[in-house]
Each structure stands twice: as structure tokens, then as C-alpha cells.
Amino acid sequence: MLRNILLVIFLFGCLPGCIESPEQSKGSFTGYVAQKEADRALLVSNTESLSGNEKMYDADWIRGIADQVNVGEKVTVEVPEGPTVASYPGQTSGTVLSKEKLEKPEGAVLGPEEVLQRAFHQEKASIPTVKKVSLDNEKKVWNVSLYDNSLHKDIEMVIEDRE
């Protein structure tokens, strides 16, 4: 009888350490919101990796954040660690941790988020990575460099700095 009680106490003492808590099983993903659908948003990172001979950037459709983010924003989301749906882009769920406010240059009419919204809308790249967004104040235009992950090509765009 005493042995059974000691066994139960031992198990209750050991089991909590064997079970992974939700806080330990979370990771984060930072990227630009490239597209939105009713219940999910496409986040594409600007950290390069290689897939064979082609460069690629991480991309995931994240469920549960579409109503909290806008196309063109740079956000960090909390996602479950481990496998996502095996596709490219991946598919998972998440919650918004933070939004990085992109600084609007002095003298600019548009902010970087608005410029990216226009660039994503004009180009229709299916999985666009933001490589560079800069204002040419003298010419009153934004220079946008994207990378299309599905076609594996660089895209250079000029967006006028006006409403």
C-alpha cells in the first residue's frame, strides 16, 4: 500500500516536467502582409534561404490574424512550433504579437505601407518578398524592389508619391 502511494506521488512529481506547456511550444514569424483573405493573411519574410539553386523566402498563410492586420504592414506573429501544412507557402494559425511601424520619410505624401499596398496590387506577384522600399524625394517617387518567390525573379517598380 505504501509503495503504491509513493508511486503515485512520484508520478505526479515527474509528469508535469514531461508535458510541454503551451508557452514552450510557440515560436514567432516576422514578415510583410502581402495578401489578405476572409480568415487569413499571407506573411512573407525578407530573410533569404536557398531551395536547391533558387533563393526563397519563408512564407506562411496565418489563420486568425486577418482582421488585425493590413496589407503592407510588417508584423510579428506567434505561431505553434513544429510542422505546418506541407505546402509553399505554409499554412498555420497565429496571433499578432507586434506591428513594426515603418517610418514615413520627411516630405513624403505616402507612407511605406501604402506604397507596398499599391505595389502588391499592381504587380500581382503571388508570394512577393519586400527587398527595398525607398523614397526619391527629388523625383517624388518610391522605388520598390520585390522578389517573386513563385517565379524566382526580381521585380523593380516605381510608385508615384501622391494620393
Query: What's the number of helices?
Result: 2
Separation of termini?
80 Å
Helix and strand run: HEEEEEEHEEE
Strand content: over 45%
* Arithmetic mean of pLDDT: 84
Q: Which features would summarize this protein structure in a list?
A:
6-stranded mixed beta sheet, 163 residues, alpha+beta, globular, 3-stranded antiparallel beta sheet, single chain
Short structural description:
This protein has 163 residues and is of the alpha+beta class. The chain has 2 helices and 9 strands.
Give the SSE layout:
Layout (H helix, E strand, L loop, with lengths): L1 H17 L7 E11 L3 E12 L2 E10 L10 E7 L9 E4 L1 E6 L11 H12 L4 E9 L4 E8 L4 E8 L3
Parallel strand pairs: 3-5
Antiparallel strand pairs: 1-2, 1-4, 2-3, 4-6, 7-8, 8-9
Describe the structure.
With 163 residues, the chain is of the alpha+beta class. Helix content is 18%, strand content 46%. It contains two helices and nine strands. The chain has a six-stranded mixed β-sheet, covered by helices on one side. A hairpin with a 2-residue loop joins strand 2 and strand 3. The termini are far apart.
